[in-house]
Amino acid sequence: MCASRANSTPAIFQTRSTCRRDEIESTLPRRVRDKNKVLLLYCPAGRRGAEARKKMIGLGYVNAFNFGSYRRAAQIVCGK
Description:
Radius of gyration: 13 Å
Number of strands: 2
Strand content: 5-15%
Strand order of the largest sheet: 1-2
Order of helices and strands: HEHEH
């Protein structure tokens, strides 16, 4: 469910997990063993999310999707 106020965090983002781009290769396989799990990426502007997605695809995570910026991700999820 999406938040009604502009500064509220949509529920889908409240269960997020962070991982630095330079740690993806070492950290992600330990944290997410199922390579078919859906991974939704976003960052302040979208560029780092795109780089992270490329690394994840290279590791075999076939369902990694970059939403782009946080604002765009919220628009996609909340339909606003």
